[in-house]
Amino acid sequence: MISPRRKLRELEARYAPDDQRPLGGYLVAMSSYATAVSGLVALLARRGGPPEHLASKDLALAGLATFRTSRLITEASVTAPLRAPFTRYVGSGGPGEVSEQVQEPEGGHRHALGELITCPYCFGMWTATAFGFGMALAPRWTRFAASVLTIDAASDIMQKLYSDLQAR
């Protein structure tokens, strides 16, 4: 009988013969996400279910906060120590950001996690989920946190515009 690990390695080899893709790590990440969402849905159901709708201003606030949080976690210089066990420094990125490369996997799970915490698009889904459930479960605190992050995002935009104008 072929072990599940061997089957997964064979699938990975067929899926991407010229590249190493950590499908097992992706399965762990998706399972973790699904487990967290299931738990939050159960909690929300015990509290009477989700709100009928979220106000447009809350959606905009959460959207901007999701953008800023994703950039902060996946790209910022200050959060590099969180990513360092999974990445290697390549060089400077944008203002206050670094460019990193995910380290070669010791195992697929480590590489997959490295990809998650270095990709603002990938991490954005996790962040959006947190803000969405936050708006439903603790709207006051979530709005406050999202407001701080949105103010920071607006400041970043203004700093970039100022810098670009100075360069002319």
Q: How does this model look, in words?
A:
The protein has 168 residues and is mainly α. The protein has one domain. Helices cover 68% and strands 7% of the residues. The chain has seven helices and two strands. It has helices at residues 4-15, 23-46, 56-75, 80-83, 108-116, 120-137, 139-166; strands at 87-92, 98-102. The chain has a two-stranded antiparallel ribbon. Helix 3 (56-75) packs across helix 6 (120-137), helix 3 (56-75) packs across helix 7 (139-166) and helix 6 (120-137) runs antiparallel to helix 7 (139-166). The radius of gyration is 19 Å and the shape is flat. The termini are far apart.
Could you name the key traits of this structure?
7% strand; 7 helices; 168 residues; two-stranded antiparallel sheet; mainly alpha
Mean pLDDT: 92
Low-confidence stretches: none
Number of domains: 1
Instruction: Note the run of SSEs as H and E.
Output: HHHHEEHHH
Structural class by helix and strand composition: mainly alpha
Shape: flat
Percent in strands: 5-15%
User: How is the biggest beta sheet arranged?
Assistant: 2 strands, antiparallel
Number of strands: 2
Q: What is the terminal-to-terminal distance?
A: 68 Å
Number of helices: 7
Radius of gyration: 19 Å
Q: How do the strands line up in the largest sheet? A: 1-2
**Fraction of helical residues:** 55-70%
